[in-house]
Structures are given as structure tokens and as C-alpha cells.
Amino acid sequence: MTPLIEVQGLSKRFVKRLDLAGKIAQRLGADIHEEVVHAVDSVDLTVRPGEVVGLVGESGCGKSTLGRMIAGILPPTGGTVLLDGQDVSEMNGPERGDAALAVQMIFQDPFASLNPRMRVEQIVGEAPLVHGLIDRAGLPDYVDDILTKVGLDPSLKRRYPHQFSGGQRQRIGIARALAVRPRFLVCDEAIAALDVSIQAQVLNLFMDLREEFSLTYLFISHDLSVVEHIADRIVIMYLGRVVESAPTEALFASPQHPYTQALLSEVPRLDQRKRNFTPIAGEIPSPLAPPPGCHFHPRCPMAMEHCRTAIPSLAARQKDWEISCHLHGG
Amino acid sequence: MTVLSVEGLKTHFFTRAGVVRAVDGVDFALERGEIMGLVGESGSGKSVTGFSVLGLVDPPGRIADGKIVFHGEDLAQASEARMQALRGARIAMIFQDPMMTLNPVLRIDTQMIEAIRAHEAVSRTEAWTRARDGLAQVGIPSPEQRLRAYPHQLSGGMRQRVAIAIAFLNNPDLLIADEPTTALDVTIQAQIVHVAQTLCRERGTALIWITHDLAVVAGLADRIAVMYAGRIVEAGETDEIIDRPRHPYTVGLLGSVPSANKRGQRLAQIPGMTPNMLSLPKGCAFRERCPRAVDACGDEPPLHSGGHAHTVRCFQPHGAKVDA
Q: Quick check: A289 and B190 in contact, CB under 8 A?
């Protein structure tokens, strides 16, 4: 089966260029250099049709940047994104337009991601109209239909975003994404800003929509318990690289990479009472100066000499289970 | 020994649009060294409860009624000068955003030494030594150098450690932590919880951990109080609340938390949204979202107390019969 989305060697570097003063200072011998952040460092990822992939990592690990590149919002510095086996960057004309519509994104902040000066019906109806998915006469019914599907009362469609609560706004954002009939949704911390009871509502909505529209998701989150709930497969990122990728149940049962193990042991759970919190030491290092070799070695309890110099490769150790660690033969 | 006992606390905000009853009749007590989780969603009044104890409620809000008894002294009646003497010394607070605690234009050492010398007549050198030891205790590497840093030079987790170090400088009897880990990653969250937990255990400091995250307090707190629309709707020992919740809101909240045994299934969601505090319904504020609501819920729900100091404010609580 052709993967719906396949990412090969995808990288993103953010470069802080020197301004004129900086360049002159550099000529004069000052110790000033361009600063380069490897936000995403040669990542491979496949998503099969109908699958929900959870992308997990701490802040600054590059998970949102990866999501944005897959959604086509951010141009990659290197590597390719394939949709149905075809390179998106080599597409032209209508083909490219279709590819852009097929992948939609849902954002974290429902307050910042909706235009405050547009009514809900415009927010949801604009894109399908522009792309000719629906004509003007059919638009009102179409918008009503989509709003109903995401659990909003269509009679509210003349309102502005500020008249809605956070959970409702997130539903508007979802309706906007669904309006162009996408096949793949990139959800970037889509429920992180919501209250617990509202999170459950939106999570349920995602699961219902998945069945109804046979959607495929890339679910980006820092919250492991949310990802564990919704994802079929989990990909763990650390400082721009994928460290482990495995089916959800297997990963939670026996995580292999030391970072995954540390991360999973620190998820607070309802069934753990009066526990002694024993954290892993240290913090995620600055992506401006990542440690050489395996990025995790300064915090890793099992680091060997080898880990300080050689970058482990991400390779399949078992079926569907990829690990990037020297302990596992990387 | 009871450190803090809050009785019938009401903190109201008198706004142009009407009176917001942010905290409307809250009772709880805290023993020495006890950790209480105060759980609720946004707008439930959990933070305002914390601010009320510290006397930090700004106009148009004020404490309209009730007592806040701290070591036998009613803080609701205390003067501002008295509150200043207590704040930072006997009662300390850490906030969600450590930048709120730290002054961005002052070095860490200046702020820590100031916090000590505001409450005690000690020399600068001695205060500096205590500040350094304080940073070391919260696990900050090379504290001498960190003392010379400005807050913006530290990461979020590091700043929160500094905030905790400052809170513990004067050995408080009570620490109020208002969502201190919400903005942090799980690994950093675990570090912060670990530091707060260890220091409270060592020194017998009572801790109120305000959060929306039931999973964190499940592992940390001795007791949990669940707030909804300005009231504590259920309170009891952690095991009681998590394993045998009685209030329909607590049941809904627990059902909303994704966990391993519910993977792939629909979560038991609470319908509707968090209420508008300006127009709360009469009687039980939860009744419009409640699956067990009956006509009687239009009246003020009674406070049931079951065993194990487990109290619930509901006409139709889950579980076996209790004596009202």
C-alpha cells in the first residue's frame, strides 16, 4: 500500500543572518557568526492511509516545524514530502492545488487562528468557494452541514469568533479545515489550550470525524496521555531527530530508547498515587549548539563513549519498530 | 496542627456587568505538612481562592465574607502591613508564569537577597549564602554563577526552580502553587514536582497545589478538593476522590482524562461548556450539564459527608447512601 504521506530526509534550518553591522564587525575580526538552528534534522516518516500517527516531543524538538512542512506552510530546507508517492515540490498546476487541499492543518490557539473580523460562515465557506468545490448557491447549505458535523449550531454562523468559547472556536477551526474535503489533517497541539472537559469533547470529535470522513491524522502533542489515547503509532522526537517510532500499545508496554523510557515514566497517571517523582536530570539542550553524536547522550543514563561521537541511525529493529540508539545496534 | 482553615470564604468581583461570585462559600482546612490538590477548570475560582489567602485580590474584587484562619489569626481582617509581613515569610506563592514572580531587570541575587532582608535583619553576605544554598537545594547547578544571571538568561524550568527557591527562602508554613507546571514539558514538570514535594516533606510545609490536571495531583496530593463555579463540590482523600468519586462533575472530569485502559474508546465527556460566572443558574451550578439532575437541583444542594472525611455537595451523588 502506498503511504498517504511519506517524508524523506526532511530538514529545516533557520538561519539568523548577520546584519550590516555584524558583517563589518566580522571583517574586523570580531567573533560573530551566523546562527543556525537545525529545527528538523533529516527526518523520515511515513503515514499510511487511515492511520493516526502521534508525534511527541518536548518544546523545541521540532515537532511543530515538521508538521508545518508536511502541511505545506513552511518550505523545507532539504528532503522531500511525498503525497500518494508523488513529490509535492515537483507538482504543477491543478495537481499541486489538489495536493494543497488534501492536507489541512488545525492549530493550537483557537484565539489566534481565526480571523476576528470574519463571520463564521465566511471563515468556513471562503476556501471551498475559492477552490470551486461548491458554488455560491449551494454554499449556505454546505456550511450548515459542516458546522453540524463538528457539533456547532448552524444558526450561529452569522456570529464572529469572539462570541464563542475556546472549545467552540476549536470546532470552527476544524470545520474550516474540513470544508475543503481534506484526506490528511495535521493537528498541532489541537487540544492543548482547552479545559479538561472540553478536551475530551474535541478528542471525541476527532475520533468521530476520522470514521465519518476516513481521515488520516498526524497528531502533534506534548501530552503523552492524549496521544496514547488517539494514536495507532507514535513517533518520538528529540532535538530535531526521530528517536523511536512504534505502534502505540507496544511502545507503552516496552519503550526501547532511553529517552522514550524516561519520557513515559514521567507521565502523571491517575492510577499512580503518592509516588515519588524521580525525574531525569537536565533539560533539553539548546538547538543552537546541539551535543555531538547522539543528541540525548548528556542526559542519558546509559551513554557510552561511542554515543558522544557517532550519530545513531534510525533503523527498523522489528516490524514497524524503529529505534535510533547505539544500545540497539544503531 | 491546623495551619490554615478557610471558612465560608466568598470573594466577589463587583464589575459593571454585575457581581461575579468567583469564590462563593469555600471551606477547607490544611494540616502541617499536608498537600492538598485544588482542582478545577478555568473560571472555577481555584486561583482566586489562592489569591484570597494571600490577600492579593485586586479591586473590583474583594473578600465579601468568610474567614481565613492562619495559625489562629483571621487574615480576612488583617491589615495590609500585617499581610506584607506574612507574605513571602510565612505564606509563599509560586505562579504559573515564573516571569510573574521574577523582576526581569534585576539579577537573581538581588531579588533573593531582597526577599530575605525584607523579613529578617541579616547581613548581605549571610543573605547571599542563604540564597546560594537555596538555589542548590532546588537542584540548580553552579548556583554561584546563576545568582549573577538575569531571569531572561534562564530556561522556563530553571526560572520556576528559582521561583521555588525564593518561596522557600524564609521557610514558610504554607506554600500556594498556582498551576506551576502547566507551561512546562513533562520531564521538566516531573523535576519541578519533585523539588516541591521534597522540600515540603523535609520542612513540613503545607502545600496547596492548584491545577486543572487531575493526573498530577493524583500522584502528589494527600487530599483533593474539586471546584466548580466558585464552590468546592467534592473533597476528600486522594484515593477516595479518584477511585470512588461521588459528584457527577468529578465523575465526568475523571472520565475526560485519557488513560491506558480507555485507549481508542470514546471518552466520557461532560456536555456543554464551563458556565458564565455572570449568569449562574440558581441552585446547583452544574445542573445544566449534569446527567443526574432532578427538579430538586434548582435549590441549593446540601453538603453530604460520607466516611473518610469525604464530602460532596449534591442531591444525587454517585455511590451508596450516605447520612446527610
A: no
